[in-house]
């Protein structure tokens, strides 16, 4: 899986950080220390870590991922990373 999105709420930029969806690579999610969670009322799961986005970005960079773009949508910060 060459692309990955990570996100966090602006008011929670020290964590938690969402690092994947229910179809994400389980081995990569384990490397990040992510737990699969399902919010009440959602019919999908997400992977989350309790660390800040900078730590997640550093870990993904060590695996060869590069930030392609970053943006803010409402109160959410989103990074798109790509691994060549």
TrEMBL record:
One of its GO terms (biological process) is negative regulation of biosynthetic process. Keywords: Cytoplasm, Membrane, Nucleus. GO terms for molecular function: GTP cyclohydrolase binding. It is found in: Cytoplasm, Cytosol; Nucleus membrane. One of its GO terms (cellular component) is cytosol. Its main location: cytoplasm. SUPFAM superfamilies: GTP cyclohydrolase I feedback regulatory protein, GFRP. Belongs to the GFRP family. This is GTP cyclohydrolase 1 feedback regulatory protein. It comes from Petromyzon marinus (Sea lamprey). The lineage of its organism: Eukaryota, Metazoa, Chordata, Craniata, Vertebrata. The gene is GCHFR.
